[in-house]
From TrEMBL:
It comes from Psychrobacillus faecigallinarum. Belongs to the Gfo/Idh/MocA family. This is Gfo/Idh/MocA family oxidoreductase. Keywords: Oxidoreductase. Coiled coil: none annotated. InterPro entries: Gfo/Idh/MocA-like_OxRdtase_N, Gfo/Idh/MocA_domain, GFO_IDH_MocA-like_dom, NAD(P)-bd_dom_sf. Residues 13-131 form the Gfo/Idh/MocA-like oxidoreductase N-terminal domain. The keyword Disulfide bond does not apply. Residues 141-257 form the GFO/IDH/MocA-like oxidoreductase domain. It holds the Pfam family GFO_IDH_MocA. The keyword rRNA processing does not apply.
Length: 340
């Protein structure tokens, strides 16, 4: 398939940001500036404060509407960090404007929406990637190498946890059900993604329990068990109500691999840590990566070289399918079979 050719300057992809969201200001915009193959052109917001943000972050152009940014022919790619329920609308509009798209996780609120988003990007010949930046940190390739080498024998179990204690909950869109709030959408999506990625398999049965907020009915915490199609079992937990954790563990017949900074190594100065335990002996490997810069450079390279991003649209659709099954299990209390 021939993708839209990027109008580049010195082999750099020119980026626009749809929203003044904190993650954009604190993570993606600085990463674009650090990247070797990217250039930040513009940011759009929904009010005059976007000009203050642009001045503070030295962004050349500021727009008070997303539509204006999408109309700028100088922009090759956009980053969408909008609240979850707006992802589909702005992915569609960005694709139809001919922009390549890096969209924050979760990709959407349903697998059907996710599939439609991937489809419209293919129809418009633009690249699309869900911003599961963790996957691109080099520590995970090393984990896969260890598994392939037989370092821990046959995989028997994968566990994953991602949590943080949320303050000021009433002001958080993450507590709004209609906006795609809840710990499962926000941090549990990482746990499910990592389990599927490391196992190289898809869940066929899901059972999930949750603690729901009494006012908003969003899941404050969720606890899931997955049965994968290759016979591996997995468990995960995610929460807005627990101390910060972002980890996974792979238990094999001969040993274990623990990754304690799996999803946010940037909170550990970019240092990923792998703990391999065999015969009561623990070996530690440390691997550094500039997490968000790697994400920006990877996606920009995919545009420049017309290659497929490592985080594929199809994988994102399947992640949403599992999240939907977890939500259905929370609602019904039943084990949910995932049909494909």
């Amino acid at each position: 398939m021939k993708y839209k050719e990027a109008s580049t300057v010195a082999n750099k992809i020119r980026w626009g940001i749809l929203s003044t969201a904190r993650i954009a200001q604190e993570q993606l915009i600085p990463a674009i500036k650090r990247a070797s193959n990217a250039e930040l052109v513009a940011i759009a917001g929904r009010g005059s404060n976007v000009h203050d943000v642009a001045r503070a972050l030295d962004i050349p152009i500021a727009y008070e509407s997303y539509e204006e940014l999408l109309a700028n022919p100088m922009i090759d790619a956009v980053y969408i960090p909008l609240p979850n329920h707006l992802h589909k609308e702005w992915v569609f509009k960005s694709a139809k404007a001919g922009k390549h798209i890096l969209c924050e996780k979760p990709i959407s609120l349903t697998a059907k929406e996710a599939s439609e988003m991937v489809e419209v990007c293919m129809e418009q010949n633009v690249k699309f990637m869900e911003a599961f930046m963790y996957q691109l940190h080099p520590q995970h390739n090393r984990v896969k190498e260890l598994i392939s080498s037989g370092a821990i024998g046959e995989i028997k179990l994968i566990t994953s946890s991602h949590s943080f204690y949320m303050d000021n909950r009433k002001s958080q869109f993450r507590m709004n059900k209609e906006m795609g709030g809840g710990s499962l959408f926000d941090v549990g999506c990482y746990c499910i993604h990592a389990i599927r990625y490391m196992a190289g398999a898809e869940p066929v049965k899901v059972h999930c329990l949750a603690k729901l907020d009494s006012e908003t009915e969003v899941d404050i915490s969720a606890f899931g068990t997955l049965q994968l199609d290759n016979g591996i079992h997995a468990t995960f937990n995610c929460s807005f109500d627990m101390a910060g954790r972002n980890e996974y563990e792979i238990v094999g017949s001969l040993g274990t691999i623990k990754v304690p900074f799996a999803f946010r190594p940037d909170q550990n100065d970019g240092l990923g840590r792998i703990l391999i335990q065999q015969n009561n002996m623990t070996q530690e490997e440390n691997i550094h990566g500039d997490l968000y810069r790697v994400e920006v450079e990877h996606f920009s390279d995919a545009i420049l070289n017309n290659t497929n991003p490592e985080v594929t649209g199809g994988f994102s659709v399947e992640n949403m399918r599992v999240i939907e099954a977890c939500l259905e299990s929370i609602k019904t209390g039943e084990v949910i079979e995932i049909l494909r």
